[in-house]
Design a protein that fits this description.
Blueprint lengths: L2 H16 L4 H23 L9 H19 L1
Length: 74
């Protein structure tokens, strides 16, 4: 994703929060954005190949758990 896309999505998330959209939706959107970016970065480092089977699913799950733990602690 390009930096302009990330900034636009972030602005949209802030606007959605002002309009009363649930925090759960914001957490999900942030997790998807972060997991897709991480997957693309890992594939770029490994010349288009995955490091381990089910890489995209595992990255998404791990990031969701990390974000939820941060959300609970804050």
């Amino acid at each position: 994703m390009c930096p302009a896309c990330v900034i636009t999505i972030g602005g949209g998330l802030l606007l959605a929060k002002d309009l009363g959209v649930s925090n759960l939706l914001l957490i999900g959107l942030f997790t998807i954005l972060l997991s897709l970016t991480t997957d693309k970065l890992l594939r770029k480092i490994n010349h288009g190949k995955v490091f381990f089977p089910y890489q995209k699913i595992i990255i998404s799950f791990v990031l969701l758990v990390i974000i939820l733990i941060i959300k609970i602690l804050l």
